[in-house]
Design goal:
alpha/beta, globular
Length: 122
């Protein structure tokens, strides 16, 4: 598969677990440990999809989503938000910012891979 999936999560353990599962699923993966690092990488790369945590230092996931929606290169990249906050308002809000789907942690790595595949088919 050509292209990469960006995993942006400040929890290094979770980011590695998600990245390893995606690699086993046939994806190339880049990990960013905060929103600023994600945006810096996105300045030069258009990934297949983005797995995005909301609560991150420096630049949070809501701001990343907002910036993606304003960038013509990135506005159509499917974003899967993975968050520890089980909050209906937050879910509605990130969808309004452009996220295509939301998963609530804890979540299995198999579910993450399945949702990324689904996003790429839609």
């Amino acid at each position: 598969m050509e292209g990469q999936v960006l995993v942006a999560d400040d929890n290094a353990t979770l980011a590695s677990l998600f990245a390893d599962a995606l690699r086993r699923g046939g994806f190339e993966v880049h990990i960013a440990t905060d929103g600023r690092e994600a945006l810096n990488w996105l300045a030069t790369t258009v990934p297949l999809a983005i797995l995005l945590d909301i609560e991150m230092p420096h630049v949070d996931g809501r701001d990343v989503l907002s910036r993606l929606s304003r960038d013509p290169r990135l506005a159509t990249v499917p974003v899967l938000v993975v968050t520890g906050r089980d909050d209906e308002y937050l879910t509605d809000y990130v969808i309004s910012l452009g996220a295509r789907d939301v998963l609530i942690k804890p979540v299995s790595t198999a579910e993450v891979v399945a949702r990324v595949r689904r996003l790429l088919l839609s």
